[in-house]
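#struct-pred

JT: dropping the chains for the assembly here, can someone run the whole complex?
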Amino acid sequence: MNCQNKKPAWSWRLAQSALFLLILLSGHVLGQTETLLSGQVLDAKTGEGLPGVNIQIQKTASGTTSNLEGSFQLSGLAPGVYQISFSMIGYAPYVERDVELVVGVPVDLQIELKSNVLASPQVVVTSSRKEQDILESAFSISAIGPREIEAKSVVNMIDILSYESGVSTIKGQLNIRGTSGYTMGAGTRSLLLLDGIPMLGSAAGNVTWGTIPTSEVDRVEIVKSGGSAMYGSSAMGGVVNIITRNAPLKPETRMSTKFGVYSHPRVEEWKWRDSRGLLYNTEFSHSRSIGKHAAWVRVQKRRDDGFMELNWEEALNISAKVKLNFANAHSAAVFVNVLEDKSGLTSVWKSSANPLEAPDGSKRDRTEGTKVVLNGLYNYVYSPDVVVKTKVSGYWNGWDGYGVDPYYSRESRFYEEVQASKSWSDSFTSIIGFTLQQNGVDAQIFGQHTSSSLASFILLEKQLQQFTLTMGSRWEGYKVDGKNQDQVLSPQLALNWKPSPWLGLRISTGKGFRVPTVAEMFTSARRSIFTIEPNPDLISETSINREIGMTLLAGQIGIIDLLKFDAAFFSNRFENFIEPVPNSDAVIHFTNIADARIMGMELGLGMSAFSNLVDYKSAFTVLDPLELDAEGEIQDTLSYRHRYHWVNALGIHFLGLDASLEYRYLSRMESVELFQEIDATGQDARVPIHIWNAGLGKTYKNWHFVLRVDNVFQYYYTQLERNIEEERILTFNVERRF
Amino acid sequence: MRYLFPLLLVLMLAFIACEEPASLEAIAGVEGSVNFNTSWPDSIKGAVVVVFDDELALDSVSVVEYPVFDHFITYGDPISAEAGSANYFIQLEPGEYFLMVIGFLLEPAELLTDEEKFQNIQDYIVVPENMSPRGIIVREKIVNEQTGWSVRF
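RK: done, full complex below.
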């Protein structure tokens, strides 16, 4: 039962070297104060100081945030002329140009920001590992701001992600532009980051969404182009970076309770319980500054009866983040999360006549576990042009399955990353870094295994007038059970052209890769009538991704206050694509498919109109996911991908109320692996997905209320065979802030 | 630019309008349990409940020339050998059917997913000693419940 996690000695030596380097660098910066830049950021309408505004010196790694009164101060910048950007969610970004800093001459700025109802952030960090205007990014990015998260009052982050363009989910598994499909939880091609640190489990590379403190999330960035060159294996289909908030300077306590009631099934024959299923979620959080430092702590308790017999869940989650600001040059953050959860465990329904009930004999199947996440970040501003960031992370997960087929699993993961960024000139920046990761797993269905990876990466960005050229590459080597598994070089090349302040055009290509997970290589289990057998001969999959796209961001066009339009054409060509495939004996192996291709198009629209009375967001994605043979001839449609995906969100803000209406459409799942449709009997039918949600929010003094109905019309569908999804649920969330 | 939004919206609505919502609804079929009275012979690797649209001549089922497939509709999930009893559910369109339990000389999953073997299924099946096909009527949105079915190989 003990988790085998043998750390190679060289990993410690690398970590020690990195620490030594940081200590060496730390002595160099003390005492550098040559120029002084200060000022205040105000709300243009009210004239009040704005706290928490992000202030960035463009082309450098220097920046700060405004304090409670909106004031800020930066010292130690080299003399010169700078462009200084000011950004904050809910306000239009502003750039103060040609600010000249001279030694001994303090510069004082008064900046006014205009409110901007577009909820999505326009400054992103994930795609280039540094702050960047979304119009200047060479990759497809969508961003979700705190306003959207608050409006939905969700408990689980995945409930928000499934309403983003090109993103779908199957049983908690994230799918960006159809790259992941459904892998029985054994692997994913979409990387989840929390504050830039990978959060995928070590054995299966899957996501435990319960460890994400949803109410403390500041914003979410989704990079939909392949991200292997920057983030390595598992990022070949895209990256989701969830960025938690830093504690505000003013002490704040939040208490919230969410209460939900599931409807009885619309189909009378499916009714399986006398009383309605309930959902409770209670959260308490407190944040405050402690001298120059700040911290928040959050406790969450939830109980969800679920809409199916084995869909219940109970969890206690405690998380905290401490932000340490030692001086202008040094800052650090520590994040900890402990999750204890229990949930029902089901793989298929009882029958299509009783799709909400568990199969006879497995009604007591459940899993219980504890997960601990400990992340540390350390930023060191060596000089105005050089910043070193260090990230370390530990993840421990133990769970046990009870019922018909008991099992156990223990896994751990350790991650270290050091990244240095340097601005060589106003138009040329570079980022280099290395990462180290060790995984260990001891599980009944996988056995005992260890894996490790070492990677180094470089990103160069050069601006030539309106063009931004980005070149990057990552080398990564993998070991499984001490044996070399693979080593891969993943280059990336991207070009952005911003011909006007409201238009950005982009083109990119890159190589992606993913090494098979321990679960894909070693799983030995039974699923319904199918047996899953190990395939230790699996090799890494690679991809070539290409994309061309544009983003348009314009304001004040007739009745339209703000308009954002995004279009992209993309293509991913895979070699040795890893998919679960049953053979002629009904035995499933994770198998390398020689050739696969996913091409598609995405259109996105966001707008606000009538003096911010109405806002609307829509995105349409079409995919063509194909399996090809060695000659490039089409063999089949890749399983578990929706060809069409259309999401819509309409918001109306009137009389202090925030009303919302959402609609999500996904075309019928064309291809599955296990249970095929039987036309003669109607068995295992698959249908398109049409889901409507509605919400009403109101803020009154320190109270915030949200009433929502999800799946208003009780539309029933399956994505995964013999698994019905979504029941109508009415929820009411009350939050009080002190 | 001002026509972009309405144009896109109309296109999307036209696209969706071509596809009728088809929420899953109550279905019809047959369910019940089968009891296996004796221990399973070593040669039998599993069993399955099979649905036909006519009553078959039991002594001819395993004869290659007998047109089993002409009357075959579908089958339930395979039952593992050594099971004392097993529940089954088979979704069916409304109509009249005959149910049979048959034993397999190969692993059920192997037999049912290998198209070639499935086409020659009469080479691999065994009819229980006391088999008596059950005639059932399936009505719309109603599941026909069958009880008290015992078989012996």
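JT: nice. Residues 31-113 of chain A form a domain with the Immunoglobulin-like fold (CATH 2.60.40.1120). Residues 9-29 of chain A form the longest helix (21 residues).
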